[in-house]
Every structure is written in C-alpha cells, then in structure tokens.
Amino acid sequence: MNKIRIAILASGTGSNAEALMKKAQSLNSVEVTFVLSDKVGAGVLEKAQNLSVRHFVVAKQSDRREHEQRVLNLLREYRIDWVFLAGYMRLLSLEFLQTFNGWHGGNSQVVNIHPSLLPAYPGVDSIRRAFEDGVEESGVTLHLVDEGMDTGPQLMQSRLPLEAGESLAAWSVRFHKLEHQTYTQFLELVALGQIPTSPFEET
Ligand code: GRF
C-alpha cells in the first residue's frame, strides 16, 4: 500500500514539525516526504536532518507568485497528499490552495495548528496577547487553511486553562506540548483513515 505523503512547511524552530516527523516514523501508513522552509538556517531544517527527513529551502523572495510556484513544483514532484503548516510565517494565496486542492479532487488537505481558541487571537503572539488580556483559558486550534489569517474551518480544539499564579513562560511550555499532542493525534487519525485522504491525482 502506498503511504500517505505529507509535506511540512515551517519557518522557525520546528518543535511541531519534529513531533510530526517522529510520530510519522512510528506509523506505517504515512510519511513526512519532505520539510520545506522559507528561511535559510531555520532550526526546523536541522531537526529534519537529524531525523533523516528530506528538506528544502525555498527562500523568501519579493514575488509571492514565483515563490508559491516553486513550492507547488515540489509538492507536485513528490505527489504530496497533505500539507501541514507548522509555524509557516506566510499566508497561502487562493490560487495556491486551488491548485493544490485541484490535485485532490478539490478537497482541502492543507492544515495548520494555532495556539489560541480561534477565532480569538489570530496571527502572531497569540499566547502573550491572551495572557496580557487576563483570560482564564485559551487553547489550541487545528484548522483547514484558507487564504485568510488563521480563518479556515476548524477541525479540532483543545482547551488550556491558565493555572493560578502561572507565568507566561510556564503557560507557553504547556501550550507547545498541547500543540504537539493535538497535531500528532490528527496525524494518527489521517494514518488510520479516520480522516479520509483524497490521493494526489494530476488532471
Ligand atoms: C507554534 O506555536 C504554532 O502553533 C505557530 O507557530 C509556532 C511554531 O512553533 N503557528 P514551532 O516552530 O513548531 O516550535
């Protein structure tokens, strides 16, 4: 049986990417086919290297369309089924998503993890902003990606209450653990076929 082929797009340290790569290596029916970063020297590249996962840099450039085309070329070349965004600091255009989804019967197979209970606190610094607002709880959202900023349909949410006297640093550590748990749980559901995958088919 062919494995379900996943590409991870990430710009930063890559703790989510690392959790996903390790989980995939423990499952028979999925593989992280490659990790792609838009940032030269991003920590995620070293993590991929250490886990013997193929990795590419498609560096930021001024022409968004050209950049996205280079990413799409890799996704097509490796017949990628799912794209997992993990701290990828770029929005994907509608054109990009339509092209990728078109290779999967029009189904959306691009997902992202975000550290807030969306639609609250989209964008950057979500944990800090929630903390500074004095919220009693926040959480993690896994969602399908559309062209907006953290706006696509939600697939999973996990809540994370702030404990009495807890610091921002301590809460952030728990956030990242919860992200890793949520994202790897989703990966397992994909691997088990409980989240159906439309295979890559170029028309
Ligand atoms: C995570 O908090 C993720 O939810 C957000 O960016 C951060 C990336 O962290 N989108 P890492 O690079 O996976 O450690």
Mean pLDDT: 96
Number of strands: 7
**Largest sheet features:** 7 strands, mixed
Order of helices and strands: EHEHEHEHEHEEH
Spans of at least 5 consecutive residues whose pLDDT stays below 50 are: none
Radius of gyration: 17 Å
Describe the fold and architecture:
With about 200 residues, this protein is α/β, with parallel strands linked by helices. Helix content is about 35%, strand content about 20%. It has helices at about 15-25, 45-50, 65-75, 95-100, 125-130, 170-190, and strands at about 5-10, 30-35, 55, 80-85, 110-115, 135-145, 155-160. Strands 3-2-1-4-5-6-7 form a seven-stranded mixed sheet. It is globular and about 55 Å long. The model has no long low-confidence stretch (mean pLDDT about 95). The chain binds 5-O-phosphono-beta-D-ribofuranosylamine. 5-O-phosphono-beta-D-ribofuranosylamine binds near residues 86, 113 and 179.
SSE layout and pairing:
Elements: E1 4-10, H1 15-25, E2 30-37, H2 43-50, E3 55-57, H3 64-77, E4 82-85, H4 94-102, E5 110-114, H5 126-132, E6 137-144, E7 154-161, H6 168-191
Parallel strand pairs: 1-2, 1-4, 2-3, 4-5
Antiparallel strand pairs: 5-6, 6-7
Helix pairs in contact: 1-6
Bound molecules: 5-O-phosphono-beta-D-ribofuranosylamine.
What's the short story on this structure?
The protein is of the alpha/beta class and 203 residues long. It is 36% helix and 21% strand.
